[in-house]
Amino acid sequence: MTTDLSPVPGAASSTPLRLRTADAVMRFSSRVGWAEPELMGLSTLVRPGDHVFDIGAAHGMYTIPLARLVGATGGVHAFEPHPRQQKTLRRVRRAVGAGQVQVNAGAIGSEQGVFTMRLPVKFGLPIYGHAHLVPDLPAGAPTPPNMRQWQTPVYTVDEWCTQNGISSVSFMKVDVEGFEPAVIDGAVKTIEASRPSILLEVEDRHLAKYGRDANQFADELRRRWPDYGMYTWVKGAWVATSTVTLAARNYLFATDAAFARR
């Protein structure tokens, strides 16, 4: 199955010019390979008024295009545990006038609590792509060499939706360096109720930190929710695939109904 990309019908005309411009920059960056190609496929899945989650938001690569798509009547719930990236994301939100974005200091997992975040450092530079949660490490535990370490709040998607009165979620992007299975475990009620499209980073190099295997994880998702297919973004379309390979790092899990929303 493939799905074509076309302009978003009814995209809010009241969207600030600054946000439209920032979105255009991100989409151009995606086309020329400076940003993830999957950005170009978001308009197939997200509509004005939607509530979406950007889990592992970093500096806002997905947050800004999602804010443009949901418009002023929707909401982007962005979660980022790193203080510096939180600060940058808040500045970007103000600069582009994206009031529909809520920047939340913390991570998403399978249970609420306060966990330890570790960030590797090499030659004095933080390696953000290898930052990870250590759920069972006690507060005050020694910091390993070449690591930065701090405590961060952790929420679940299900509890967040209940506490904030979010009745429906249409899309979730999850890029949390191997902690993706825990995010899914904490979002079961939301997935059952809303059937959101879920864009997951699925890579053995990250999942192995938590004793997980990429293809086993993908198979578990599809066994649990058989109406979900797995897709990758290839040459301007979401293309069905059955196996996680090294050719892609991001995999979309979505139902036929999600594509039919167009």
The total of beta strands comes to: 14
What fold name stands as the CATH topology?
Answer: Rossmann fold
Helix percent reads 25-40%
Name the CATH superfamily assignment: Vaccinia Virus protein VP39
Report the sheet with the most strands, covering strand number, pairing sense and barrel closure: 9 strands, mixed
Shape: globular
| Class based on secondary structure composition and strand pairing | alpha/beta
Order of helices and strands: EHEHEHEEEEEEHEHHEHHEEEH
Rounded Rg: 18 Å
Could you name the ranges where pLDDT drops below 50 across 5 or more consecutive residues?
1-12
Overall mean confidence score, pLDDT: 91
Q: What is the top-level CATH class?
A: Alpha Beta
List the helices and strands and how they pair.
Layout (H helix, E strand, L loop, with lengths): L1 E3 L12 H15 L19 E5 L7 H8 L4 E6 L2 H14 L4 E5 L1 E2 L4 E10 L2 E2 L5 E3 L12 E9 L1 H8 L6 E4 L5 H6 L2 H7 L2 E5 L2 H4 L6 H11 L4 E6 L2 E4 L9 E5 L1 H5 L2
Parallel strand pairs: 2-3, 2-10, 3-4, 5-9, 10-11
Antiparallel strand pairs: 1-13, 6-7, 6-8, 6-9, 11-14, 12-13, 12-14
Helix pairs in contact: 1-2
